[in-house]
Queue: 4 jobs
Job 1
Amino acid sequence: MELVRTISEVRERIRQARAGGRTVGFVPTMGYLHDGHVALIEAARRAGHYTVVSIFVNPLQFGPQEDYERYPRDLERDARICRQAGVDLVFAPSVEEMYPAGRSRTFVEVTELTDGLCGRFRPGHFRGVATVVTKLFHIVQPDVAYFGQKDAQQVRVIQQMVADLDFPVQIEVVPTVREPDGLAMSSRNSYLSPEERRAATVLYRALKAAEALVAAGERDAERVRDAMRRTVEAEPLARLQYAEVVDWQSLRPVDTLRSETLLALAVYIGQTRLIDNLLLRVDDPPYGSSGSAHFQIRTGAEDLAIYARSQHHGM
Ligand code: AMP
């Protein structure tokens, strides 16, 4: 494994890999790596790619009141994890390497998909993400890039950007990796005190409560949203920022759950803002004389086929 800090070195290594007949798989990260990042790396490795990981805490995607300065950084540890995971190349540029003028005068902005969810509370965030991912794609020129379902809105924004602007890259989405108690792995979990860490399971509990309702046949989005809200409100250390039930394609709130529906949450645990989501595949049930509805629920990590009694849910 090699670690390089400049764009020209990346270009040179990629040129050599391609000359050797390799395809390129790319995993963009902000570092402080955990098993969620490793799952992305392993997906790239499994596909046989020359695997490139970028580690860059991108100032452009942080708001002025956000945690850019205190975001955890440990390049030595990250390099060790990458080496163990079989990464070929780590690109860890300085801010000056990425933004020589100290800022960018050019931005990539994905509209509509960024209006709601995190976009509503983090103005400019997805513009920063889309801009830096564009730069990284131009630097690395990957065949395939890997993103985590954990950041569901980011996935949709990148998919849309790639489609709209004809980036010659395939986007692969990797299921959310969780701690044994359900907490989605995140570099920001390192901010949590032991007490907050225990409370942080509330996000997963809220999503599972909502999922259980859907599995029991509930299709009214407001009731599903309420189940998430109530679970979070019962946790004293938690403060809900949003609990939404949205269509996976448009990311717009739905009234009735159907096809691919995203349950998404942002919750403050003390000063730490955490997000999580579940993507449910709710097949329109074939209501027949049997009175039973078959629908599939896809959670982050597994596919579940669920059979539920059909009830009166306005469907
Ligand atoms: P970050 O370093 O937090 O910007 O994340 C880099 C990439 O890793 C993004 O595509 C994230 O969605 C993904 N990622 C972060 N946490 C997880 C997780 N728990 N499971 C799967 N992917 C993750």
Note: The two ends are 55 Å apart (CA to CA).
Job 2
Amino acid sequence: MSNEAAIQYDGKGRLRHLVTLEGVARETIEAILDRAQAVADGDAGAGGTQGILANLFYEPSTRTRCSFEIAAGRLGWQVLNIAESTSSLVKGETLAETARTLAAMGVTALAIRHSEAETVRRVAEAAPDRLAVINAGAGSADHPTQGLLDALTIRQRKGSLENLAIAICGDVRHSRVARSDIHAFSALGASDIRLVGPKELLPESTPEGCIPVHDMEQGLRGADVVIMLRIQKERMAAAAVPDPDDYHRAWGLDAERLKLAKPDCLVMHPGPANQGVEITMEVLHGPQSAIQSQVKNGVYVRVALLAMLSPGD
Ligand code: NCD
């Protein structure tokens, strides 16, 4: 296990933070998904634990921040939303120091989104005993709750991830969603994970267990699941951003291309989508789209995680 993965466990090997899905055991992922599924099926998921969640988002977010807030609300928790411009970070306080201060006030969980993956890891390392740190999206590196909600969505619709052909398409190189999806899907036994996109948008070294495909049609053929990604303009030089029309012609998903996949292929997108660029409006909201399930499952996964990581559970 890498050091990065090791910091998220306590002395007894129990998960106490969620910084990355890298190296997280299949049983642990399944336990989170099972609990999230119980919440989806009507279990309040609370387990009696009380807590306070602080959302610390240093990059734009609507769905992830709201999802954490709604999840905490389902548990009867109090929620603090701390925006950068109103926090002491503007006075030079480090995020680790802010975390300690919040913990002293009784905050039990932090959901952090940051452009630097290293920052989230440092906060987890410095966190006092009763504070759980959850990565809500860090740079291009990790977005573990998205990986979990995507895995849950696929499991619900397909029963299992084993033997599925999953195509992750577009700007995989800069996507934290893709990285966390790959960790989750591989841990759950997916054996045909295709990374589909132009060379410059795929990772320089292909993650273990994945296959790079530089042709959209070939990548889609026979797929059970297709995950479309937004071009992460904010993580690349302006000159490298492809022209939207050219990109759409070569790599966009439309109804015609989707026919190459299996007839019951699920279409997923973490949002926000650029309609007409990586995906058409028709497909995004079409009969094969699972985007609403993804959003719902996001709440269930976060309820499960908050309950599981909080002390006393
Ligand atoms: C993603 C993110 O922020 O990483 N969105 C999300 O959390 N649902 C994907 C993106 O921004 O493209």
Note: The longest strand covers residues 132-138.
Job 3
Amino acid sequence: MPPIQKPQGTDDILPVQMPQWNWVLKNHARVAQAHGYRPIQTPVFEDTAMFERGIGAGTDVVDKEMYSFEMHDEKGGSTRLTLRPEGTPATLRAVLSNHLDQDRHPVRVHYAGPMFRHDKPQKGRRRQFNQVGIETIGERAPSLDSEVIEIGWRFFQSLGMSGVSLQLNTLGSLDDRTTYRAALIAYFTPMAESLCEDCRRRLEINPLRLLDCKTDAEAVAGAPQLTDSLSPESTDYFAEVQRRLTDAEIPFTLNPRLVRGLDYYAHTAFEFWHTSLQGAQNALGGGGRYDGLAEVLGFPATPGVGYAIGVERCLLVLEDSDALPGGQPDAEVVVSSIGVAAVAAAADVARRLRGTGHRVVLDDSERRLDKKIRNADRIGATIMVIIGDDEVRDGVAQVRNLEKRQQERVPLGKIEDALAEANAFHNDGRIDL
Ligand code: AMP
């Protein structure tokens, strides 16, 4: 029987990779919290309708990529559920259904977690991937759009990442988009026959999506620009966002073709690109203002702005970076018993040392001492506490400094002091999850 394989498009994140992962996640949390954002977590699966309504038919995510399933309950009813393809709708749902917007204006939250899209797997495009993100919910102001963009920018800086390019556009107000939609329909309808199958469908249900099409690039290049449909208020709003970014010394490129893959955006839309990422996978993250989303989900109209950034893609860009942290030792102390009589004493010493904050592996195997020492080296330990029959009889242990290759006899009651003197690396309470 062949061994079970991991599902296509998923990744194991192995212990050696975890410090880098945690470092990216911690940097994001730190930068977000420095701006007054609080952490939030929502379920990994949600009502399918939330994504159908919130992301919208005509998007690849909803039409092709959702992991959906139906669960039957004991009463004969059933619920359609979907593994979340992104974080924004659920975060908005959680904020509004828990009335967090009643005492914070706006609500500022950040999140991190796995997302699921049944896409064609390749480098930088996974079926389970991770995003970090922030959302600012409850107010519409250019200063909030620029704040959100700045946090993303500062996050990349905190990773020591260079070469990020900020692509910026405005989609105008929801009214402007209605005008623009009509202009697009008028432009594309006469050439509908020559468009690809996806685009013919998009023209019916979601003409803005046509601008994303790579197949019909020539037709798209001649399409009307959204800027022609902008109201004076929307133009002013966008100018203010740009002014604030300039004040913050954040460079940006205006990109009128940037529509984002999702459907509820208004006003500011942006993406962070990186040249080292290839082709369609060149975005590290993106976001924008989604003032229309709350109503689509059945809540009172509530403005919001946010972004999501892919953790895997950040790590791809950082692959060879010196900024990435190295691994930590599994434990700084290995307590080894030699012979059955020493097992209990070794276990007792290990427990006591953990109580004083050391990370300790107990090795009460029957392996030979030289093998135990080699294993302690692999673990990254600096100290070995060795207890054999003789030591049990005399109430002592051998404390071996693996770096200096020195060893001394220490009374069992004084092991903690000996380790403090040896300056054994002390666990500062930091746990890598
Ligand atoms: P989106 O929600 O599509 O705007 O995606 C935001 C970011 O999430 C992208 O820029 C990527 O960094 C990341 N991302 C989206 N889809 C995937 C995927 N299938 N695999 C890996 N990362 C992804």
Note: Residues 86, 117, 119, 124-126, 129, 131, 261, 283-286, 308-310, 312-313 surround adenosine monophosphate (CB under 6 Å).
Job 4
Amino acid sequence: MKPHFLNSLAALLAIAAMTSCNGTNGSQPTQPLKSALEGKFLIGTAMNTAQIEGTDAVGLGIITTQFNSVVAENCMKTEKIHPEEGVYAFDLADRFVDFGEAHGMFIVGHALVWHSQLPAWFTVDAQGNEVTRDVLIARMKDHIFTLMERYKGRVHGWDVVNEAFEDDGSFRQSPFYRIIGEEYIQMAFEFAAQADPGAELYYNDFSTAAPGKREAIVSLVQNLQAAGVRIDAVGMQGHITMDFPTPEAFEKSLLAFAAQGVDVMITELDLSVLPSVTRSADIGARVRYDSELDPYTQGLPEAAAKKWESRLESFFDVFIRNSDKISRVTLWGISDKDSWRNDFPMLGRTDYALLYDRNDQPKPIVEWIVKRATQK
Ligand code: G3I
């Protein structure tokens, strides 16, 4: 493992590099996001592999200066951390948790039970036949206990179940649902509460502003609570586009979840500026590349950048107005150049979805958030 001082050195170099830049994008905020938002909510980011391995010095500088919460973008997913039965690959996840701890971050584990990035072995036996309900429950339990016990007291909250519903509110036909039945969700939360009673437990999903999904999540929280099963927060993934959802619909869901007595977190926030092709954030939903749907390969025209800024402002306005209900807002990465949006739903587009541009310079929205958060 790379010693922590290398990460810290990288961070110092990055800060030095950043302070030498200027421009519309590039003006450093008058105070760090995390201090401007103190007392309102945590401000987090996803960390990619280069950042966890310590090779993205500039990214690390931004993370340690601006943010106080981290989540791993990929390395704690089942296919990465549990690629074969009984085989766990903890290296990157260990480094991620070490980094978060060394920098006093609120560390989030993502994601324990999720249909996507689930390795094939998880749901089949040695002959390739689908496993029985009891076997899948046992595998799910082993997976939850192994991860949560390893990072007990260090990972502060977990996405226990991720993306269990379709937009219309019906259950996603995931292997967990098909083989175990809808009780798999309650079981996952029960196992998680036993594995680390001190960790916060979350349900996390995208398109939560869709009415069907909103109602399904409200019912889920109510059912868990009625059964005496702990759920601490709902994570509203913020994979938004220029046309979905409206800030009003997003706020309506936020208020509906908060009314159940749980915290709300805005997770996985990014705003794609590109023509939207699908509302889904399910990485399986791929579309063939079409240059007409990739209009900004040579840069983002000022008018489009302004529209993007103003749309993100209206969302942050919702978050800040409702900060008594929101425990955390997490961006899904630092720099536009690293965003998954460039490759979804079609590979190789040029998107501008995050707070920092392709040169790792802050966009004007960063200072706007600082000002809005600190205005009297
Ligand atoms: O690491 C390999 C690389 O070696 C290979 O050359 C390359 C070729 O395509 O693939 C790389 O892996 C990719 C990985 O991201 C790392 O970049 C996978 O193909 C790609 O499928 C994977 O996508 C991730 C996706 O989840 C699926 O796990 C995205 O980075 C990540 O941002 C995205 O995040 C999800 C959340 O976990 C849950 N909510 C929705 C969100 C967006 O789909």
Note: Residues 289 and 347 are 6 Å apart (CA to CA).
